[in-house]
Amino acid sequence: xxxxxxxxxxxxxxxxxxxxxxxxxxxxxxxxxxxxxxxxxxxxxxxxxxxxxxxxxxxxxxxxxxxxxxxxxxxxxxxxxxxxxxxxxxxxxxxxxxxxxxxxxxxxxxxxxxxxxxxxxxxxxxxxxxxxxxxxxxxxxxxxxxxxxxxxxxxxxxxxxxxxxxxxxxxxxxxxxxxxxxxxxxxxxxxxxxxxxxxxxxxxxxxxxxxxxxxxxxxxxxxxxxxxxxxxxxxxxxxxxxxxxxxxxxxxxxxxxxxxxxxxxxxxxxxxxxxxxxxxxxxxxxxxxxxxxxxxxxxxxxxxxxxxxxxxxxxxxxxxxxxxxxxxxx
Length: 330
Prior knowledge:
This protein has 330 residues and is an alpha/beta fold. 45% of the residues lie in helices and 16% in strands.
């Protein structure tokens, strides 16, 4: 059963416009300015104009490099040399590992035993040390904090960090430049780092754009939190969307979501799989389950589009091809 707790004040401030601009400068020339994909067929199906931000084509295969690199780059050099520590089910792990590799510093990443093998292998390929844990019995944040204290490294959590959020904001700031006049922006939600960054970018650059988040139906902790006005913590959700198997937003991301996100909707695993198959067949794009969840809500009528200009995050494509074939072929 879900439990609720009041949102405590965060020691970290919500990133302001200057922080978002600084992130954009740090990331310029480092990450890809990912393309915006369109499909007349999908537009006709949903009765709206869709603009798909292709972050599955980003370095390390997801948007996560934006926040991770910004956070590593923001560390003072004398502290950065001691290394960085992170915890993640996969995409943030790869992003921190690659960011540390670029800066020439060691990285230690805490990852679940059941993380997708492709994500474990990729993280190690960037030179990181991987420590595994049981996501159903152990607390990853506590493990990572202990490692950071023991080794003197800087902890970079996957979403509860202002520099991570500021880095993720560049997904939306780029999209707003590429496609002005968006009515809606639909964003996948795990712990809330991406949607927080995107909502802040829209607040500053395109305030008329309504931001809506999407979670797996079995992992709707952020939806419950937004609707009740209190942070709701759930058990680790049973969903194919491993990047969205979080149990609660942080105080920091929840504060942004409360202020700047209109609503959170949910999708089923079946809707995600159908979306992966349709995008793979019709657009020749391979998405991981978490990367397809925002579009799944659009294609399956979970959001009222009403002829709108709609931005959608395709947030990641890190899925083993055998696993992908098994899902879309089922």
